[in-house]
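Hello again, I could really use a second opinion on something today. I've been staring at a protein lately and its backbone has me curious. Can you walk me through what the tokens say about the fold? Take your time with it, there's no hurry, and the full record follows here:
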Amino acid sequence: MTSIQDSPFPLAFEVDTLPDAFRAPVNGTTAVRTTARALQGMQKEAVVSIGPTGKIWRMVCDEGPYLNGTDLAPFPLAFFCTGMVNSYMAAFCNLLEKYDISFRQIRLKQDNYYSMEGSAIAGTMTGSALPVQLQLEIDSDADPVQLTSLLRQAVDSTPVGALLASVLANSFSIRHNNRAISNGRVEQCPPIGELAHNELFEALSPKNTRDTAEIISKIRSAAIHEGVSGGVGSSLASNQKRVLHMQGICTLQSDGMRETLVDLYSPIGSQFRFLSDNSVANGGQGRAPCGLAYLNAGIAFCFLTQIGRYAHIRKKLLKDYFVVQDMHCNDAGASASADMNAIQTHVWLDSGHDDDYARQVVDMSEQTCFLHAACRMPVEVIIKAISE
């Protein structure tokens, strides 16, 4: 498969089998290994392996008109937004159950903001993560002050809450044209050697025969606007000064699944629907990816987008590129704060250029990646609770 159009599969499905080299280890912490590759244009494909549960999910990603994408699948930040709000919802519902607080309806509305400013050619372009707005809407007889306090506790108890509250020095290894090379500016981590990633992806197949087409789906297409801020091709400009804004609304369904609708407002993007479920070990049925799976896919997808965007701006295109990303965290549950370790990302680049260019690609991609920015700087989550 070289594009989403070529695939006979839905946008997301549970994977049947996976070689050990691509599986997350089970070593006492919550380990997640994400392998992601570039497809045609701005499309990408990822396999996310969750260590403690053994769950493996395949997902695909695309970009909208603002990056000249085909807009067939969600953009990277939609995955991260979905992972955040679903993690918060799962932890919050656990607390409501713990304290025997009843409710009739519940949803979380989350607004994420990011900024991009500077010149890619001059090396000054930098991505940043801005404060998150999180609003609780609940039909309950409980005290709103107590609900707000419990939501704050829920946020702090999740791995993504730990990620946003921490200052993480993420590290990288680089393999360029089939050779391990030294890093440039970014932190170095031990390389893991060569991996046959294309063979991995081509062998993927769904674990279940039941219809999984609705795990991720497109609800509404972006309007096409030329020559305006946030319009067609606007995010490919070599000089940037802009703020991105998206909103995710997560609703708890009667069957225990969570539905999240993500809208991209700036730049001008589409609306996508995600379903999420807890693993059996965490009280769910494992019918869809958990929040942590979406989070990890989002980080890998966003980094790959920055690789492709930088290569496009520099007019020095890459023949192939993919990453293997490892996250380790301690999910303390709703009773305590979680811990998050720095993320390790192993980068493979195939180009007709020298090693200095490969280092520049990784350095600038980390510098402009919104989600690596969310790791290297504290990001405030501002909470507002509303009882309906």
Summary: The two ends are 47 Å apart (CA to CA).
